[in-house]
């Protein structure tokens, strides 16, 4: 067992045992520290005295070492014998048979514990003592190179002459065997026994393992920012972008003739910051006592949640309820090039075929080019269902993969992004194989889409402030003894060409049977 793991076990045990157990463990830590010091001093001792004689044996090794005179003269023995005696005493302490007392002397384990093992001792203290003895047996087993288990601790403690401890360890071993058993009744009996067991009956020795990491929620992956939109700073709450609404005209004229004057029309695209907010209250006890850095985890979790929510807005936001208008909104606004930038997929005798799918995909690319927008960072967006549905499509031969390039992440040479936030349960149009299994496919020149945002995320944490709970009721963080974490992000999403850069294919069910 790793020393850090042992330290974590000691910390957890200290909290469970109360003041009584805390005192015992602190004594144990002091003893270990003294032993480490003794080990170091032994290594520094000479192998023999100057005259090979000692005046007396060590009566107090700790005091002798502290006094700097470990080899006081002893006419009855040699320096080698003194060193060996000290090593033997240290070995006794490490073996668990003897305990070094604060004055430096050693007493058998049973003598030290006998004074606090009687029936007159309160149950809480007896349980605490039993837990310490079990931990001591486990530590000895680990120091002997054995696996940390009830079985190894039992083997290590057999020579201690402590039938009460052996009984507790045997009970713990049987509980573990029951939990690992394939016999359902035996396993359930063990679980019930452990569920009602108290310290001293084996439960302290077989605690449920608790992993030191938290598995986060399965968040939707963010795809829009990674597709190359322009990121523009917006520090004052809004961003105004002027654009040319109509162009000047050029004409051919004859000799000695002139053309009429022409001008251009201008307008502005205004992006206004939308506030994305997360409020997360935390118990102050949780912050203080959690074994994991819960505040760091919550902050990271809030970041994932914010990224997923803004990505949904950038794809399907409808510009209502303080939400940005996403690619869907902008595609529905445009008919640049004479074609609507949103259209339903087509069918052949009531079903999508390889040919109708190909026609729809080519149509989306053609609409983009007919719109005369710069074809920068053209990207496809679709649900995983329809992505793999296209991969599965076959031509006239079952061995021919029509969209084989999608295995490499492209479609007609353009990258494909998959997002679980593009739904696959839309009603769609009334034709086709169903009205609750439709999805959407986007084709966007992402270099023309912009995200205007304030710098970074605004993160604050305050103790005792009021907040609205999940039901909208104001809660007093002060009386609830809570710290409230808040994250604000400010941004808006827009198309520099007012929708001409985005095309939406609707009622898609290309992968509904995949």
How would you describe this structure to a colleague?
Strand 10 (410-411) and strand 11 (414-418) form a beta hairpin. The longest helix is centred in the first third of the chain and has 42 residues, at 3-44. This protein has a six-stranded mixed sheet with strand order 8-18-12-9-11-10, with helices on both faces. Strands 4, 7, 13, 14 and 17 form a five-stranded mixed sheet that branches. The chain has 13 helices and 18 strands. The protein is elongated. Helices cover 37% and strands 19% of the residues. Helix 1 packs antiparallel against helix 3 (79-95), helix 1 packs across helix 5 and helix 6 (150-157) packs antiparallel against helix 7 (163-180). The protein has helices at residues 3-44, 61-66, 79-95, 109-114, 123-143, 150-157, 163-180, 184-196, 284-289, 294-316, 327-333, 354-370, 384-391; strands at residues 54-55, 98-100, 106-108, 230-233, 238-246, 265-272, 274-283, 342-344, 378-382, 410-411, 414-418, 439-445, 449-453, 458-463, 467-468, 474-475, 482-495, 502-508. It has 514 residues and is α+β, with helices and mostly antiparallel strands.
Instruction: Classify the helix fraction into a percent range.
Output: 25-40%
Structural class by sheet pairing and helices: alpha+beta
Question: What is the C-alpha radius of gyration, as a whole number of Å?
Answer: 38 Å
**Unreliable stretches, pLDDT < 50, 5 or more residues?**
16-21, 45-76, 93-125, 190-207
Instruction: Give the CA-CA distance, first to last residue.
Output: 49 Å
What's the β-strand tally? Answer: 18
Mean pLDDT across residues: 74
Query: Mind summarizing the main beta sheet?
Result: 6 strands, mixed
Spatial order of the strands in the main sheet?
8-18-12-9-11-10
- Identify the quaternary structure here: single chain
Number of helical elements: 13
Gross morphology is elongated
